[in-house]
Amino acid sequence: MEPVIRNEQDSSNPLLGPGDGVSSYVMLYVKHGPGESSPDHVHEWEHQAFITEGAGILVCGGKEYPVKTGDAVLVPGGIRHQFINTGDVPLHRVTVNPVESVKK
């Protein structure tokens, strides 16, 4: 099997997923403009995020946690959460979810 290489500018989410032979996890790239946020949501699976650029807050279980470039985040499963860009530049993050998150 050959490696799979995707550029976020040329791909849609998930960047790497079942169509690429992924069996366990998918990789997503998310950008929130200034003042934008992810939906406030909850799901049963945990996931990880890495902040590649920008700053904001993660609201997780009703508490606010600051996040910034270089931060790695583990969001536990079953906890309501939301990423909010509180800065003046886009907040970029790479998220790793179980493959079940994109299967319908």
Written account of the structure:
The chain is mostly beta strands and 104 residues long. The protein has a single domain, classed as Jelly Rolls. It has no helices and seven strands. It has strands at residues 25-32, 47-53, 55-60, 63-68, 72-75, 81-85, 91-98. The chain has a four-stranded antiparallel beta sheet, with no helix packed on it. A three-stranded antiparallel beta sheet has the order 4-3-6, with no helix packed on it. A hairpin with a 2-residue loop joins strand 3 and strand 4 (63-68). It is globular. The chain starts with 24 loop residues before the first strand and ends in a 6-residue tail after the last strand. The relative contact order is 0.30. The model has no long low-confidence stretch (mean pLDDT 93).
Q: Which structural class should the secondary elements be placed in? A: mainly beta
CATH topology description: Jelly Rolls
DSSP strand count = 7
Number of helices: 0
* Major sheet characteristics: 4 strands, antiparallel
Strand content: 35-45%
CATH C-level class is Mainly Beta
End-to-end Cα distance: 26 Å
